């Protein structure tokens, strides 16, 4: 897909160009989706008592919240290719707000499980975020743009851990019971999701020169692929072993982050005998690292590319994954709260840099099937979260043991990134494109305030 007039610099305080409006709306939309997706996680201590849930049942709800996203992420990339990111994102946000607001109606494990399953669909928002920024930014900054938009979106995991206990506390102060309070609290992220969907429709466009429908009408974009064309695009991506290697890699980083988002508050609450608000605050620190950590992963990906091309991007991804695995194993062995928090932050840094590094590689795998590639790789994150969740639903396995085994898996499977290679012709083509984009501005992956 040949998109013209991509931005060669990220001007953070600018909203005047379609590229920067897409950047800001895409990260904020993903942030809000995280808010709705994991809004219930920091309230699980209350929900556990209200619905009398066992550890196994809690584990099953965690699996449900991320399992459905695997399927939806595979489909959402095809919708982006066909309809454009603007229509796809707006629809997902508006429709996704319904189960978020409706989870408060759950009165049993079964109904709560179904609600979390439905809410999990909004996790596919990540694919649209990465797709939209890939449409808008040139090769010299696309790694930084993808990493920053996704990182600030992932920041919603930290926002959720901090805000939801505070919202619940406020409702309790107003006289609501805990049983009613957590149900009312979930209305907040649902309303925000709905309003964001309307804003996305009104203020963004698919590409720098217009929406996909307009570009196709002017002959600047190939016609939308029918069902056969969409299937062919998906199969082209699915036949590429590099896509599946990145599928595994993304499971090792984003899948791990999703798992931590789901268990962090209850882990600190039970292990260190903290209050719900304090446990939520500490758990929120993990997600708050996304303010800069995932961006760093993309920045380093662009910098490695400046020196070593696409091979450099792959090498940096491998380094980030190995460091993540080591930090996770260390975190699992911490018995002192202050040390646990410190190591958790180091672990958070590397897991999020690995995510940014992954989507510093994705845009270069298959440009003609970008949506399919992004969808498959994005689905890998949730597939990893499903497998990781199996560790934490086992009544005979402590959370500490689960984290240790998870760290070992990251270290061993990090080698899968070495499968990702590019032909000499592709390396030369992308090196030329990088230099042309970088020549417009000094420096690689440059961010500026205006």
UniProtKB/TrEMBL annotation:
Q: Which Gene3D superfamilies match?
A: MFS general substrate transporter like domains (1.20.1250.20)
Q: Which UniProt keywords apply?
A: Membrane, Nitrate assimilation, Transmembrane, Transmembrane helix
SUPFAM superfamilies from the UniProt entry:
MFS general substrate transporter
Q: Where are the transmembrane segments?
A: 21-46, 58-76, 88-106, 112-131, 152-174, 180-203, 243-268, 274-293, 314-331, 337-362, 369-391, 403-422
Family annotation (InterPro entries):
MFS, MFS_dom, MFS_trans_sf, NO3_transporter
Q: How does it sit in the membrane?
A: Multi-pass membrane protein
**Residue span(s) of domain Major facilitator superfamily (MFS) profile:** 22-427
The entry's localization annotation reads: Membrane
Q: Does the keyword Transmembrane helix apply?
A: yes
**Family assignment from sequence similarity:** Belongs to the major facilitator superfamily. Nitrate/nitrite porter (TC 2.A.1.8) family.
Query: By what name is this protein known?
Result: MFS transporter
Organism name = Vreelandella malpeensis
